Amino acid sequence: MARRDIQLDEEGRLRHFLTIEGLDQPLLTEILDKAEGFIGVSQQAIKKVPLCRGKIITNLFFETSTRTRTTFELAAKRLSADVLSLNISTSATTKGETLLDTLRNLEAMHCDMFVVRHADSGAAHFIAQHSAPHVSVINAGDGRHAHPTQAMLDMLTIRRIKGEFVKLRVAIVGDILNSRVARSQIHALNTLGTSEVRVIAPYTLLPAESRSLGVHVYHDLQEGIRDVDVVIMLRLQRERMRGAMLPSEHEYFQLYGLTEQRLRAAKPDVIVMHPGPINRGVEMDSQVADGPRSVILQQVSHGIAVRMAVMSMCIGTQNARIARREASVSGLNP
Ligand code: NCD
């Protein structure tokens, strides 16, 4: 079954959010528009809306995370859901229970949504395939595969500052090979019609299929960031590197580290992004990270709004399913 089938219900509404791949421009735009509407909730005296009241959302983080887990948790709370954050290291999975047994137990507790982060590519997809029809699954990062909510919060940040994607030139710099963020960003940028998407990386940190992803490949930082509107820096994902892919962090910084001086090759109003956590002095120096072109902390704030958008859309799809079922039981919709 194609991914698209599993993420959408029969009316094309979002049921799970596992990958950007296969989703169309109107759906991505709907997520961004909804998220835009949720930004104001954080500025209200009472930071809550009732869209997921009475729902149970469970965070299942099999891999460490601070930003992503916290913003998912805050997003669920702002939607008025009841939130469970399972501490996997002390949970029954470490006592030998299988992942599916854990899921069955959570389903028996009537959880409505699982937010999953896992070191294995495809884990969220596997959970979605094996969960009950009333459960939605959101991928919070699986191996090197996808991190769709990160990509969408990046798109929201870009759209709010730069406007239309069709006019933009965007460069993604660094460890493309090991980055689930880059993969999701490339799909999102291309689907939203970005004029030019570039990737800049050493040969060892580029996946073999790079060009087929619809990007222009550069190996020289200065050349690659010339006249771009947006620079997205990536963390060196050492935990996913097999063997020595880099001479040293010092040498990496000499070639690919972003400094104020190097940034001058880009457009004067360029913005600098990073999904975090930043390695200062490796991907970029502190002057850039904390400088006027950096929008890194805005990305974090937008993460809450985007996660609220995706969660409320999936719960809305589940509510529509429940309403259809109730209508057919009561004979209104035979
Ligand atoms: C990213 C991740 O975990 O994939 N971080 C994040 O979600 N904020 C990128 C990274 O770890 O470098």
Q: In words, what does this structure look like?
A:
The protein has a five-stranded parallel β-sheet with strand order 7-6-5-8-9. The chain has two domains: 4-146 and 300-318, 3-Layer(aba) Sandwich (Rossmann fold), CATH 3.40.50; 148-298, Aspartate/ornithine carbamoyltransferase (Rossmann fold), CATH 3.40.50.1370. The mean pLDDT is 92. Helix 2 packs across helix 12. Helix 5 (123-130) links the parallel strand 3 and strand 4. The chain is 39% helix and 13% strand. The protein has 334 residues and is an alpha/beta fold. The longest helix has 34 residues, at 296-329. The chain is built from twelve helices and nine strands. It has helices spanning 3-7, 25-39, 67-78, 99-108, 123-130, 148-162, 180-191, 221-224, 249-256, 260-263, 286-289, 296-329; strands at residues 56-61, 82-86, 113-118, 136-142, 169-173, 196-200, 216-218, 230-233, 271-273. It binds N-carbamoyl-L-aspartate. N-carbamoyl-L-aspartate binds next to helix 3 and helix 7.
Could you name the CATH topology of the largest domain?
Answer: Rossmann fold
How many helices?
12
Q: What is the radius of gyration?
A: 20 Å
First-residue to last-residue Cα separation: 29 Å
Poorly predicted runs are none
The set of bound ligands, ions and cofactors reads: N-carbamoyl-L-aspartate
Strand content: 5-15%
CATH superfamily of the largest domain: Aspartate/ornithine carbamoyltransferase
Structural class by sheet pairing and helices: alpha/beta
Order of helices and strands: HHEHEHEHEHEHEEHEHHEHH
Main sheet record: 5 strands, parallel
The whole-number mean of residue pLDDT values reads: 92
**CATH architect. name of the largest domain:** 3-Layer(aba) Sandwich
Overall number of structural domains? 2
Q: Biggest sheet, strands in spatial order?
A: 7-6-5-8-9
Total beta strands: 9
